[in-house]
């Protein structure tokens, strides 16, 4: 149905009318460029119910972060957690340089499951691990972009 | 130094595992022998000592017998199915997989057994009615692979077979794992004894159990009455085998009729409609509502969407109620209540999902009379050691009230939450799940919350100016992440349509709902949001619902969404 539209609506920034119980608003770019008066409630960063990013408020690693994909739960999950934890808490000048053994163990495990951990992506995974640490609570979208297989 | 730390780490998971078993199988609240002793002393003053002692002895016997089950047996001597698992997940779909992953992430070395009636390993459903139909690969029904929004290909299976531990090895493998027992149905649940029985008589006891049995497609009474000849020409679409069968049928018949105007029916109609143009297949879609997505979108938008579905090559027949179906020659004859007749070769029924709650009886679990499904609390718990997630869970949403949700992302969110709570988190349902749909190259939307067309709505759309054109056919829709909280990279449809009919360059004022945001209200509070052809805005939508604030002018709220931005 064609809704009733004013002959002068071209000049209006906002056109608004009701169709039964439903309101329809057409708003121009100019109208929406003015600041919104809608108020949002301030978020509590320590809210225990909220989904957490990769690093929890207390500094621990959130192994259940969707951004990790299957890394912490697959057959090499323990090796991954070990290597990643070591890296996370490493205070060496070259961060993680004291974790070579853990990373080697992880790599050895992953080599046993080539269709879970494609070999060419391995360096990407390591880079991704270090990138994740530097990120603030990650937006799932960004994480997804970087996530390799599993 | 580091080596010994590593070694300690490898041993810890197994030790933790065994002590957890004692804790959860022992006296409620007990955590090892010493606290149980205190319990004995305390209760004996009330004269209940004898009862406690007897219970303890039983538990100790159970512990000892379980311990002997755990002692590494030679591989040849291992039973095919373990008699006990710490984490038992009934159902092998999205919610179960999400829970398994969550449990494994949080409980080092956890041993998780999934028992699935489906012969397939856990897989994701959305591509079965979307991406798989648009694949260029002629072998797609075998590979079940599709291209994601980022160009990368992936399988519908969450993980390849090598991810899983063989079922018989589950109690013994060093760091635990996830095992899937396929093609087996749990038919009986003893909640007091914490034991389930399978269709083949096998019994498995558990410490914690998740029911994620999902649902089964509903059928129309008219079709059920119709007899075998009609049933043979019917698809109730849900699983991989239904996709394979329908794909084959779509190449063989001249006419397919989809009954149902919701998500699944409309997506399948559009997918088949595309094939219609290239292969001369007639695609009809009929449903009782006034337009596609009539129960979800406000009427003006539902009507607009219906036109779009028609442009995808579908003969959409709204306001159609099926009276009877019969075989006529080699074809089907559908008679509608208003007298119209539809002749077709094959029917796809997409008329809803019946939650699988058969276990409720033996388990003594409550079934919700309003929404169906197992009734659980805000933490998805039905009883002490039993959680329910996914399509089968009727749960309490702190913000939106009691509900049951049949979407993929909800299965992921609730499965993950159940897994967290099965490993001690005690968190309520809080992170709102979302859902999405694409109906051809011009209509893509994401939604969150209570998106019910019976609620009053306020839709704010970008006002067309002379410069605006409708979405270009070559532009990727769904470029945003469709399911933020999922466990695997999820696909969004890649629109490649080369041959759709061109849209008018300048949409007529007031009639083009090209892009915008629709708010669903309960009083002045936004309880649901549809992001109409705009993407990457789900976080702000989620925030508004979470806040639960009253808003007087929703145009002001709409400003937060930047609907005019490309």
TrEMBL record, chain A:
<keyword id="KW-0560">Oxidoreductase</keyword>
<keyword id="KW-0811">Translocation</keyword>
<keyword id="KW-1015">Disulfide bond</keyword>
<feature type="compositionally biased region" description="Basic and acidic residues">
    <location>
        <begin position="125"/>
        <end position="134"/>
    </location>
</feature>
<feature type="domain" description="CHCH">
    <location>
        <begin position="76"/>
        <end position="112"/>
    </location>
</feature>
<keyword id="KW-0653">Protein transport</keyword>
<dbReference type="GO" id="GO:0005758">
    <property type="term" value="C:mitochondrial intermembrane space"/>
</dbReference>
<protein>
    <submittedName>
        <fullName>Coiled-coil-helix-coiled-coil-helix domain containing 4</fullName>
    </submittedName>
</protein>
<dbReference type="InterPro" id="IPR010625">
    <property type="entry name" value="CHCH"/>
</dbReference>
<feature type="region of interest" description="Disordered">
    <location>
        <begin position="35"/>
        <end position="54"/>
    </location>
</feature>
<dbReference type="GO" id="GO:0033108">
    <property type="term" value="P:mitochondrial respiratory chain complex assembly"/>
</dbReference>
<keyword id="KW-0676">Redox-active center</keyword>
<dbReference type="Pfam" id="PF06747">
    <property type="entry name" value="CHCH"/>
</dbReference>
<keyword id="KW-0496">Mitochondrion</keyword>
<feature type="region of interest" description="Disordered">
    <location>
        <begin position="114"/>
        <end position="150"/>
    </location>
</feature>
<dbReference type="GO" id="GO:0015035">
    <property type="term" value="F:protein-disulfide reductase activity"/>
</dbReference>
<keyword id="KW-0813">Transport</keyword>
<dbReference type="GO" id="GO:0045041">
    <property type="term" value="P:protein import into mitochondrial intermembrane space"/>
</dbReference>
<dbReference type="InterPro" id="IPR039289">
    <property type="entry name" value="CHCHD4"/>
</dbReference>
<feature type="compositionally biased region" description="Acidic residues">
    <location>
        <begin position="41"/>
        <end position="50"/>
    </location>
</feature>
UniProtKB/TrEMBL annotation, chain B:
<dbReference type="InterPro" id="IPR029324">
    <property type="entry name" value="AIF_C"/>
</dbReference>
<keyword id="KW-1017">Isopeptide bond</keyword>
<feature type="domain" description="Mitochondrial apoptosis-inducing factor C-terminal">
    <location>
        <begin position="418"/>
        <end position="547"/>
    </location>
</feature>
<keyword id="KW-0560">Oxidoreductase</keyword>
<dbReference type="InterPro" id="IPR023753">
    <property type="entry name" value="FAD/NAD-binding_dom"/>
</dbReference>
<keyword id="KW-0999">Mitochondrion inner membrane</keyword>
<keyword id="KW-0496">Mitochondrion</keyword>
<keyword id="KW-0472">Membrane</keyword>
<dbReference type="GO" id="GO:0005758">
    <property type="term" value="C:mitochondrial intermembrane space"/>
</dbReference>
<keyword id="KW-0238">DNA-binding</keyword>
<keyword id="KW-0285">Flavoprotein</keyword>
<feature type="compositionally biased region" description="Polar residues">
    <location>
        <begin position="471"/>
        <end position="482"/>
    </location>
</feature>
<dbReference type="GO" id="GO:0005634">
    <property type="term" value="C:nucleus"/>
</dbReference>
<comment type="similarity">
    <text>Belongs to the FAD-dependent oxidoreductase family.</text>
</comment>
<protein>
    <recommendedName>
        <fullName>Apoptosis-inducing factor 1, mitochondrial</fullName>
    </recommendedName>
</protein>
<feature type="region of interest" description="Disordered">
    <location>
        <begin position="466"/>
        <end position="507"/>
    </location>
</feature>
<keyword id="KW-0274">FAD</keyword>
<keyword id="KW-0053">Apoptosis</keyword>
<keyword id="KW-0007">Acetylation</keyword>
<dbReference type="GO" id="GO:0005743">
    <property type="term" value="C:mitochondrial inner membrane"/>
</dbReference>
<dbReference type="GO" id="GO:0006915">
    <property type="term" value="P:apoptotic process"/>
</dbReference>
<keyword id="KW-0597">Phosphoprotein</keyword>
């Amino acid at each position: 149905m064609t809704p009733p539209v004013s002959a002068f609506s071209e000049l209006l920034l906002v056109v608004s009318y009701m169709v039964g119980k439903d309101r329809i608003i057409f708003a121009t770019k100019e109208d929406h460029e003015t600041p919104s008066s809608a108020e949002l409630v301030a978020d509590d960063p320590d809210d225990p119910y909220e989904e957490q990013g990769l690093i929890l408020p207390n500094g621990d690693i959130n192994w259940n972060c969707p951004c990790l994909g299957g890394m912490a739960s697959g057959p090499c999950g323990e090796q991954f957690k070990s290597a990643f934890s070591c890296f996370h808490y490493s205070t060496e000048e070259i961060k993680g340089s004291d974790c070579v053994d853990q990373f080697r163990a992880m790599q050895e495990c992953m080599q046993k499951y080539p269709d879970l951990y494609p070999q060419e992506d391995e360096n990407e995974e390591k880079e991704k691990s270090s990138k994740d640490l530097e990120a603030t609570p990650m937006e799932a979208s960004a994480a997804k972009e970087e996530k390799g297989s599993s | 130094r580091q080596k010994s730390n590593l070694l300690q780490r490898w041993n810890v998971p197994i030790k933790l595992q065994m002590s957890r078993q004692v804790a959860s199988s022992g006296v409620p609240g007990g955590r090892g022998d010493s606290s149980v002793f205190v319990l004995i002393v305390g209760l004996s003053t009330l004269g209940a000592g004898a009862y406690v002692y007897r219970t303890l002895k039983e538990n100790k016997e159970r512990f000892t017998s379980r311990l002997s089950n755990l002692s590494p047996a030679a591989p040849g001597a291992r039973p095919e199915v373990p008699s006990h698992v710490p984490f038992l997940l009934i159902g092998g779909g999205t919610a179960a997989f999400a829970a398994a992953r969550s449990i494994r992430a949080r409980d080092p070395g956890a041993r998780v057994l999934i028992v699935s009636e489906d012969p397939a390993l856990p897989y994701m459903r959305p591509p079965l009615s979307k991406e798989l139909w648009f694949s260029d690969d002629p072998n797609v029904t075998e590979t079940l692979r599709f291209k994601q929004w980022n160009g990368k290909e992936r399988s519908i299976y969450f993980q390849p077979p090598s991810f899983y531990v063989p079922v018989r090895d589950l109690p013994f493998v060093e760091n635990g794992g996830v095992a899937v027992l396929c093609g087996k149905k749990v038919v009986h649940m003893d909640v007091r004894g914490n034991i389930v029985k399978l269709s083949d008589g096998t019994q498995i006891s558990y410490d914690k159990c998740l029911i994620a049995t999902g649902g089964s497609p509903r059928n129309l009474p008219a079709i059920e009455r119709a007899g075998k000849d009609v049933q043979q020409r019917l698809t109730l679409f849900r699983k991989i085998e239904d996709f394979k069968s329908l794909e084959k049928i779509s190449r063989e018949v001249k006419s397919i009729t989809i009954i149902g105007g919701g998500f699944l029916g409309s997506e399948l109609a559009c997918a088949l409609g595309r094939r219609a143009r290239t292969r001369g297949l007639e695609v009809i879609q009929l449903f009782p509502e006034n337009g596609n997505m009539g129960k979800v979108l406000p009427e003006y938008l539902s009507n607009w969407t219906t036109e779009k579905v028609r442009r995808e090559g579908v003969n959409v027949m709204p306001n159609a109620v099926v009276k009877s179906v019969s075989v006529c020659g080699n074809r089907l004859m559908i008679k509608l209540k208003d007298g119209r007749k539809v002749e077709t070769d094959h029917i796809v029924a997409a008329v809803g999902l019946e939650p699988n709650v058969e276990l409720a009886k033996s388990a003594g679990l409550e079934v919700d009379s309003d929404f169906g499904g197992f009734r659980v609390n805000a933490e998805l718990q039905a009883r002490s050691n039993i959680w329910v997630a996914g399509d089968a869970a009727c749960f309490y949403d702190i913000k939106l009230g009691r509900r049951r949700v049949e979407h993929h992302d909800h299965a992921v969110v609730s499965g993950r939450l159940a897994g967290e709570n099965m490993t001690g988190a005690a968190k309520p349902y809080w992170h709102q799940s979302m859902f999405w749909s694409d109906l051809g190259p011009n209509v893509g939307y994401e939604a969150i919350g209570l998106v019910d067309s019976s609620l009053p709505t306020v839709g704010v759309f970008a006002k067309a100016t002379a410069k605006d054109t409708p979405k270009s056919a070559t532009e990727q829709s769904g470029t945003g992440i469709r399911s933020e909280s999922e466990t695997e990279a999820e696909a969004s449809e890649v629109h490649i349509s080369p041959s759709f009919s061109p849209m008018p360059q300048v949409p007529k004022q007031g009639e083009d709902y090209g892009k915008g945001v629709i708010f669903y209200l309960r009083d002045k509070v936004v309880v649901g949001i549809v992001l109409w052809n705009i993407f990457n805005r789900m976080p702000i939508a989620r925030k508004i619902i979470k806040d639960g604030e009253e808003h007087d002018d929703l145009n002001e709220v709409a400003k937060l969404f930047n609907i005019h931005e490309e």
